[in-house]
Amino acid sequence: xxxxxxxxxxxxxxxxxxxxxxxxxxxxxxxxxxxxxxxxxxxxxxxxxxxxxxxxxxxxxxxxxxxxxxxxxxxxxxxxxxxxxxxxxxxxxxxxxxxxxxxxxxxxxxxxxxxxxxxxxxxxxxxxxxxxxxxxxxxxxxxxxxxxxxxxxxxxxxxxxxxxxxxxxxxxxxxxxxxxxxxxxxxxxxxxxxxxxxxxxxxxxxxxxxxxxxxxxxxxxxxxxxxxxxxxxxxxxxxxxxxxxxxxxxxxxxxxxxxxxxxxxxxxxxxxxxxxxxxxxxxxxxxxxxxxxxxxxxxxxxxxxxxxxxxxxxxxxxxxxxxxxxxxxxxxxxxxxxxxxx
Length: 342
Ligand code: SAH
What we know:
36% of the residues lie in helices and 21% in strands. By secondary structure, it is of the alpha/beta class.
């Protein structure tokens, strides 16, 4: 079966040629798919014979809402989508003054093993397809009625562990005939896979790269993020400097504040030293309590922020949205898996 929705516009034109159809049919189909069509019968401006041919040769699936939680505090909506093979992934819709932002998943589960993260418990099941990434944006918009203007790849999974798919997804969602979301409205978050960051840099995309740093020293970072054991903080920052030099885009560093682990003054000072020479911005995240983890949120977020700022590093504290619904990564999927196991 052909996965039509994962195809770029150019590939679709190639397919039409193979089928002996005029090229403009590709544009029509592309538009239908990117508006959320759930069947080929709906595509009423295509000849019936073509619709039948496509229905016979192509898979056209749409995710279904398995769970939906709406925050009474701020209108954040968390979706648990059921995919065609029965796996589930999460998407979060956040409403900010500057527009509606959707946080999407890139894999079913994750193999990076960060100790504070719920998404990685149980490991990686599989990569998502470009269509499954696009569907999260599309169907969140359709279901909620909120027009999406920004995307963050910060849901379940490590986007750079599924780089080819992510690049294709970016092309799809950026397409003027599709959702037309500009690269500058997209952020991609990584735990710091240096080879993949170097590869991404070559595309010189105007998106914002977020690096999940969480600790400025190897001892701490290797303890909470196994990915650090093979690379180390020095090499990661060297890679970030290369990324900035190639793309001209400042990196945003995520730093989840964990009580007694990464919130000491010396760690703020070390972070300042690393950031000299790499323009970047630090986003301090109050740790979300994960039931399976003994780690606790830091009580020194403001002091840490002030210590960075007083040494010339810009640092913001992420506002917590959806505090009343399991709005942090992987928690809703975990809950569902536990229920299914019972
Ligand atoms: N794999 C990618 C993207 C997914 S996680 C990455 O590592 O960046 C999105 C962000 O949420 C990452 O910065 C991640 O470290 C952070 N995160 C995971 N669990 C968290 C928790 N319990 N509290 C706060 N932030 C968390």
